[in-house]
Amino acid sequence: MRYNKFKEPSQGGKKCSTYVIAIIILLCLISFLFSESIVTTLPSTHLLGVGRSIQSLSSNEIIGEPVNLTRDIEVVLQEQRRTINAEVLRNYTFPDEKLNFSDIDIRNLSPENNGTPIRSVIVATWRSGSTFLGDVLNSVPGNFYHYEPLLDHGIVQVRGPPLANNALNYISNLLNCNYTDMENYLLYGQDHNWLFTHNTRLWEKCLLYPHLCWNPQFLNKFCALFPFQSMKLVRLRLHLIEELLEDPKLGIRVLLVVRDPRGIMQSRKHRDWCPGQPDCWDPTLLCADLTADYSAAIRLKKKYPDRFRAVRYEDISLNPYKGAQSLLKFFGRHYGPNVKRYLDTHTKRNAGGVSSTFRNSRAAPFHWRSDLSHSEVLSIQRKCVTAMSVWGYVKAHNATHQKTLDPIKKNFILD
């Protein structure tokens, strides 16, 4: 019959089939293990950001090789020490003026050497020119920049309790290079890298050693290398800063930067995070803060004449080179080629988006005259009578006057 053609396989044939199947299974297993090895050892810096994705890696393995935190930290510290020595220690000159910086040995300023760094703090509000001035300070070699340390507080102004205690603790910790108790700050930064990107000397190391970037042990030691520290604050009102001025161990110098409220509100219109947030969007609150800051500034100038100063953003913008020289002298910083190079590239043309610091500095403060309608200007002016008066800003009387007026009173002096 036909089915007799299909014979039962022989015993030898069964053994051969078993061997073939076993070999195939073994080859598949080897191929799988090899592919896993390749995946776990491929360089991954182009795939992982310097934020939370880095933190998800095993503590024992990153970018295909074992991590030795102690070794890597020491490598980075040695690199930065050499840079500071080359850029700062060999040729730094303090301003020759009455504030007695000229007799300071810069080698004794770093916390690593048990010194007290020269600490400079800028206080402002959103869209007041503080980013530009903060970057001017950071262009000085040997500076460690604490950029907006209260970012994780949200779009709020800290005017007193309950937020003030936590905010001042943040600021004090950072100025003392203490990141150990800054867990919320560091967690926020992992998802918002711009917390560190303005700190160019730190961010450079973050890109090269991403596993160190948010590590408190590393940050404590790295911060302590620098003879200069700067910080800009746009969420803390001025009267609260007095607690830090009173601390002799900090020895901070404070600059208050104010701007025409019409210019501030015009600039805030172009920020998607501002509309609907009362502390940012309501000109009544803005001008109440400007008025309160004026009262605090009068008091602080009398109490700390060598360590506090107030300036209008417009005055610096009209003559950025002279303004930068004056501010750096106040802060005990050298106006050198790095600062001039920054000003040369950031004050003569507009480039980038709304957050860019590349601006035609003489025109930037006054865009509100053409960008805001006269009804918008009148609404702001009605809510800001006192603030505009004490800070020396001129009202626009009608639409024609608005287009042509010089909105700042000349020779403003805080008194």
TrEMBL record:
Q: Which domain of life is it from?
A: Eukaryota
The Sulfotransferase domain is annotated at 119-338
Task: Show the stretches that span the lipid bilayer.
Answer: 16-34
Keyword presence, Transmembrane: yes
Q: Which organism is it from?
A: Rhynocoris fuscipes
- Name of the molecule in the record: Sulfotransferase domain-containing protein
Q: Which PANTHER family does its entry note?
A: CARBOHYDRATE SULFOTRANSFERASE, LD35051P-RELATED
Entry GO MF terms: N-acetylglucosamine 6-O-sulfotransferase activity
